[in-house]
Amino acid sequence: MYGIPSEFLKAYVHGVTNEGHRYLGAHFIDWGNQIGVRFLVYAPRAREVHIASDRNDWSNWQHGLQRIEEGFFVGFFPEYREGDSYKYVIRTQTGEQLWKADPYAFYSEQVPNNASKVFNLSGYKWNDKDFQAQAAQKNIYEEPMSIYEVHLGSWRRWDGKDYYTFDQFIDQLVPHVKDLGYTHVEIMPVTEFPYDGSWGYQQTGYFSITSRFGDPKGFMRLVDAFHLAGIGVILDWVPCHFPKDAHGLAYFDGQSLYESEFWHEAYNKQWDTLNFDFNRRHVCNFFLSNASFLRDKFHIDGIRADAVAYMIHHKFGEDHQQAVYNQAAISFLQEVNTQMGSVPGFMMMAEESSAFYGVSKSIEEGGLGFHFKWNMGWMNDTLSYMIREQDERANLHQKLTFPMMYAYSERFILPLSHDEVVHMKRSIVDKMPGYYDEMFAQLRLLYLYQYTHPGKKLLFMGGEFAQFREWSENRSLDWDLLDYEAHMKTLQYVRELNNLYRSQASLYTQEATWEGFHWIDVDNEYQKFMAYQRNGSDGSGLIICLNFSSLEMIHHRLIETDKNYQVIFNSDETRFYGRDRGSSGVIQPQDGHLIIGVAPFSGLILREEQHGER
To answer: Catalytic annotation on 473?
Structure first.
């Protein structure tokens, strides 16, 4: 009926399909020589479904939908136009009326309003063919990846209050990310959500780009602009749970539809939300369709799945002594990773904080099939070390060295994300102990450690210029800090780190094998110092020396060698708000040893001298 294949309806409920967005929701079609809008919704236990909208003065009875096979309701109405607001009015088995937004809506009213809007996604002419072709040819594991994580609602605001539009982000965000040398941008959830305080992680419209910043074609233009600048786009994705808002997915047809029928399985105590039930095929197909939709319609380059630990464990974080796995969710993640992993150049990433085996292992190896996993252990250990005063650090040296014990157990991303700069945790620079200059020196040291440690890189917005205030979703970043030398030079430092990282194969290749890493000085807790070598697949090598002490290291014997070494990076340079201490230029061996100096809270990167470098 109305061009909907019966095979799709059966597959959506009982089988496998990623084409939900092609049929469900509001679509313009030509039917019986009339152009109009076809509505299709899945509500198997509803008695009746009507469309209430701008077109019928929000009547709850005029535009009725017809029940068809498998629990779907469909209708075709020539009078509907693009931009019309609508809701489904669902009459339940008990006679109650539920006014619901369309789960497959492509656009929505701006909060606090919450109706869906008819929107035609077709017609945008993309300009990123070359970018996509190049991305499809790359080995993502052997390419540099530094990610700028951004919350669009608080990156900048007009007069500190009003949201920027997608086109304004094109003018300002895209050049900013490109200037700093990032390879990718990760955008915190941009599909529709009712509550700003959830940061987008409690969604009601998975197919609807939020109207806070414009319409879906505005978001297409933004992605296109990033691609033209050579920057990949990753979206945060929330297949774990959803809010209980009355207009959303909760008990959609009067009974459990997207959640489990058992409250103890449905309720998520951590966020006061409802868990998706992946024992239901239509829930799996909802997300298979959603992932395909975001890729196909918006050309995104990757997805970061949020709260994976809460998906794959029942009651995760509730102090159970033994892990109880959610096998249905595990199977779904393997399914979606198989689907999206077949798209050339597309990346699937997981925020997963447990010790579950094989998050980024192949499904054939018993893994979940993600390309990358956030290394929460590295982040926690590193920050718990960096926040300590000098007299405490010697006893905590293993927090810096232990992450290498499991560095090759997964394909990792090293995140300094939004979660670390909220809820009284303080900003990254404000976590650093010591006097003002020492705080900035240690911030530079932290970033240098991150960029030279095996794993891809991620930094949350504001970290690039050392914002002091904790992040808030309700206000802009403090861009006026760039009027101050320390913050402007921190921005320069991050730019230089990205440029160096992208230019040195030693820092981004061979990240799954010990061939890419060698300890030089690992257990020097007394001096709070460590040194290691990174080796690239092209035969290149770099030595990294990191001094986590407040004392300057002078005439430190590093390695036996008869080679000259060039200092290619020193975090204490004055252009970075340092004091130009420590080794610089070409270092010649003395008595068969490489002797170096390292400033307090600083690091060096050394490379064997190349011909003509002096």
So the answer is: no
